[in-house]
C-alpha cells in the first residue's frame, strides 16, 4: 500500500536527509496519497502513502511512538490486524484504526518475534531507539519488496532499486552472477542478488536485526515442509479438494480487508476465475473485474475475452475489457520499463502496466491469481518431475526450465562478463538438493515457490500495479494455503497436467469451458513474434551507442539474433531478444553508467 525508504548511520555521522527525500520522492507513484520523513539523528525514514486502511491522517507514516521509543515505516497490508488489535488492546492504547499501528504495538509486545503473529504481505522497518537497533522484515512469500544498499558507514533501504539509485552513492557495476541468472531464468534474479553489485534484497520470510555498529543477523521465520503429514494420511482426493476449497475461501476473505472497494484482475484463466467465484461465495457483492487483450501476431491470438466474459456473466460482475493494438503496446514499453524495480522481461509486464492504469481509474485494490501455478504445480516444466525419485529433481528441473545453457550464455555475453562456472545450475542444485522436501516434485515446487517466484510473477504484479497506485493481493500465496498445498500429495495437486485439485474445484464453481481447455498464458504476441514498432524499439536499444559502450553483450551475437529476430525461442516460449532489450533499456533509463 506504500513505498518506504530510509538510512541507518553507523558511528558518528548523521543521516543524509536529502538522500532520503530523493528516495522517497522516487516512490511517489507507489504512494500518491501522502508523504512523510522522520529522523532521530541516527536513523531516517521516508514514506509514500497509498491510503487503503484508516484513510485519516491518524494512519500516516512514518508512525512514531515516543513513549515506547519506536518508529516504523511499513509497506503492505496485515490481513489479521483487527484480530491482533483486539489482543493487543488489553495491553496498549491505540490512536488509529490502521494496521501500521498494529505492527508497532506487535513489535512492542513480542519484539523480534512480532512477524510470527502477522498474516499478510509486508516490508517493515522499525527503529528501536532503546536498543539502538533497526529491525527489517519481509513477508513469507516475498510479495512486498525491500532493497538494500550498504556501505561501511551506513545502510539504506527502499521499496525499489531505482529509489536507491535516486539516493546516490550506489555501486552500479554489473553483478555477473546475477547476469547469469537473468539470462538463464527469463530475467529472474533470486534474492539476495540484483543486477547491480551494490544493491541486495532482503530475502522473503526473513527478519534482519541491524545493530548500531552495522553488524546484523538474520532469522528465517517461516519455512514449510514439502511432504506428507501423518495427520493427513488416508485423505481422499475429494477431501483434499474440500480442504483446498476452505483454505482458498479463507484466503480470499482475508484479502477483502480494506476501507476501499476491492476488484479482481480477471484473465479468463482458471486461477483468477476461481477468485471471482469465491468472492461470490463469501458474499462480496458488486465485484468489479478487469481483463486485457492484445492484437494477435503470427497466428497467435492475443486475448482470452471469451473466457473472462463467461465468468463475468456467470457471477454478474461489473466487467471492463481493455484491448491494446501493437502500436499502442510499443508506445508504452519505455514507461513500463521505467516502472520496473529491476529488469523484467516476461512478456506480461507491459500488459499488467496497461491493465493497472485502467484499474486505477476505478479501484485501489485488486485480487490476482499469481502464484497458483507454482503452488499447485501448474506449469509444463513441473510435469516431468511427477513420480520421479528425489535425486532426479535437479536434472529434471534444469532440463525443462532454463532459457540458455551455460555455453550458449557465455557466447552471448562479452568476455569480461562471461563466467567460467555455471553459477545458475549451482544455485539450482544447492536449492533443490537441500530443500526440505519428500519427492522430486516437492523439491522442484519448493525451489520454484520460495526462491524463484518472489522475483518473477510476484514482483511483476506488485510493481506494475503500484506504478499506478494500485495494491495487488494474491490469495494463492496465503501462508496457510501454501502450507496445505505443500502437504498435498503430488498425484492430487499435479494431476490432469497440473493443478488437478483446482480444476476439480473449478468444475463445481465455473463455466465448464473455462476449466476444460488447453492451458493459456497471459498472451502478448507482439513480444514473442517481434515485428513492426516493437522490433524497431528492440533494435534501437540493442544497437545504440550506449549499449555498445557498455559492452555487456557480445555485439556480433546480438547482431546475428537481430538478423533473424524470431528464429529463436526459449523453453518457456520467450524471445531472447526481448530479454536482452529489457536489460539494456532498464540500465539506460536508470542512469547506470555505460
TrEMBL record:
Glutamine amidotransferase type-2 domain ranges (all copies): 2-213
Key word Nucleotide-binding present: yes
Domain of life: Bacteria
Protein name: asparagine synthase (glutamine-hydrolyzing)
Pathway(s) where this gene product acts: Amino-acid biosynthesis; L-asparagine biosynthesis; L-asparagine from L-aspartate (L-Gln route): step 1/1
InterPro entries: Asn_synth_AEB, Asn_synthase, ASN_synthetase/amidase, AsnB_N, Asparagine_synth, GATase_2_dom, Ntn_hydrolases_N, Rossmann-like_a/b/a_fold
EC numbers, comma separated: 6.3.5.4
Pfam families named in the record: Asn_synthase (PF00733), GATase_7 (PF13537)
Major enzyme class: ligase
Keyword set, alphabetical order: Amino-acid biosynthesis, Asparagine biosynthesis, ATP-binding, Glutamine amidotransferase, Nucleotide-binding
Catalyses which reaction(s): L-aspartate + L-glutamine + ATP + H2O = L-asparagine + L-glutamate + AMP + diphosphate + H(+)
The keyword ATP-binding is assigned to this record: yes
Family: Belongs to the asparagine synthetase family.
Amino acid at each position: 500500500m506504500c513505498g518506504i525508504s530510509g538510512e541507518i548511520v553507523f558511528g558518528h555521522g548523521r543521516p543524509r536527509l536529502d538522500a532520503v527525500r530523493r528516495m522517497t520522492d522516487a516512490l511517489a507513484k507507489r504512494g500518491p496519497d501522502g508523504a512523510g520523513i522522520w529522523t532521530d539523528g541516527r536513523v531516517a525514514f521516508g514514506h509514500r502513502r497509498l491510503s487503503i486502511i484508516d484513510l485519516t491522517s491518524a494512519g500516516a507514516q512514518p508512525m512514531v511512538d515516543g513513549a515506547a521509543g519506536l518508529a516504523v515505516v511499513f509497506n503492505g497490508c496485515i490481513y489479521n490486524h483487527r484480530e491482533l488489535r483486539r489482543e493487543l488492546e488489553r495491553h496498549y492504547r491505540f490512536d488509529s484504526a490502521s494496521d501500521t499501528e498494529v505492527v508497532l504495538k506487535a513489535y512492542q509486545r513480542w519484539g523480534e518475534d512480532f512477524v510470527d503473529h502477522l498474516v499478510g504481505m509486508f516490508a517493515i522497518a522499525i527503529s528501536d531507539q532503546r536498543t539502538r537497533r533497526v529491525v527489517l522484515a519481509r513477508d513469507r512469500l516475498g510479495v512486498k519488496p525491500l532493497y538494500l544498499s550498504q556501505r561501511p558507514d551506513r545502510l539504506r533501504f527502499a521499496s525499489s532499486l531505482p529509489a536507491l539509485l535516486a539516493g546516490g552513492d550506489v555501486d552500479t557495476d554489473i553483478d555477473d552472477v546475477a547476469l547469469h541468472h537473468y539470462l538463464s531464468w527469463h530475467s529472474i534474479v533470486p534474492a539476495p542478488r540484483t543486477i547491480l553489485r551494490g544493491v541486495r534484497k532482503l530475502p522473503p520470510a526473513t527478519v534482519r536485526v541491524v545493530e548500531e555498529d552495522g553488524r546484523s543477523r538474520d532469522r528465517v521465520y517461516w519455512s514449510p515442509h514439502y511432504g506428507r503429514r501423518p495427520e493427513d494420511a488416508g485423505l481422499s482426493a475429494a477431501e483434499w479438494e474440500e480442504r483446498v476449497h476452505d483454505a482458498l475461501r479463507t484466503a480470499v476473505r482475508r484479502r477483502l480487508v480494506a476501507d476501499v472497494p476491492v476488484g479482481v484482475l480477471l484473465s479468463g484463466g482458471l486461477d483468477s476465475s476461481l477468485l471471482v467465484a469465491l468472492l461470490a461465495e463469501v458474499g462480496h457483492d458488486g465485484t468489479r473485474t478487469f481483463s486485457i487483450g492484445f492484437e494477435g501476431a503470427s497466428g497467435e491470438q492475443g486475448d482470452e475475452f471469451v473466457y473472462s466474459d463467461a465468468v463475468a456473466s456467470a457471477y454478474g460482475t461489473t466487467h471492463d475489457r481493455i484491448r491494446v493494438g501493437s502500436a499502442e503496446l510499443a508506445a508504452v514499453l519505455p514507461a513500463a520499463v521505467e516502472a520496473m524495480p529491476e529488469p523484467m522481461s516476461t512478456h506480461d509486464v507491459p500488459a499488467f502496466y496497461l491493465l493497472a492504469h485502467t484499474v486505477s481509474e476505478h479501484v485501489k485494490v485488486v485480487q490476482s491469481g499469481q502464484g497458483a501455478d507454482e503452488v499447485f504445480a501448474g506449469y509444463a516444466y513441473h510435469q516431468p518431475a511427477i513420480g520421479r525419485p528425489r535425486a532426479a529433481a535437479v536434472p529434471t528441473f534444469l532440463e525443462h526450465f532454463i532459457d540458455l545453457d551455460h555455453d550458449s550464455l557465455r557466447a552471448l555475453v562479452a568476455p569480461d562478463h562471461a563466467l567460467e562456472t555455471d553459477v545458475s545450475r549451482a544455485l539450482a542444485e544447492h536449492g533443490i538438493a537441500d530443500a526440505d522436501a519428500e519427492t522430486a516434485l516437492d523439491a522442484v515446487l519448493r525451489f520454484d515457490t520460495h526462491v524463484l517466484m518472489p522475483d518473477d510473477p510476484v514482483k511483476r504484479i506488485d510493481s506494475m500495479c503500484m506504478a499506478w497506485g494500485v495494491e495487488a493481493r494474491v490469495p494463492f500465496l496465503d501462508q496457510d494455503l501454501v502450507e496445505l498445498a505443500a502437504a498435498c500429495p503430488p498425484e492430487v495437486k499435479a494431476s490432469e497436467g497440473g493443478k488437478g485439485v483446482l480444476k476439480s474445484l473449478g468444475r463445481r464453481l465455473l463455466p465448464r469451458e473455462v476449466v476444460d481447455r488447453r492451458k493459456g498464458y497471459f498472451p502478448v504476441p507482439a513480444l514473442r513474434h517481434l515485428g513492426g514498432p516493437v522490433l524497431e524499439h528492440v533494435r534501437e536499444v540493442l544497437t545504440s551507442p550506449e549499449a555498445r559502450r557498455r559492452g555487456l553483450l557480445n555485439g556480433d551475437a546480438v547482431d546475428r539474433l537481430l538478423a533473424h529476430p524470431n528464429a529463436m525461442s526459449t523453453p518457456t516460449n520467450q524471445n531472447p531478444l526481448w530479454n536482452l532489450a529489457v536489460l539494456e533499456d532498464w540500465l539506460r533509463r536508470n542512469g547506470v553508467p555505460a
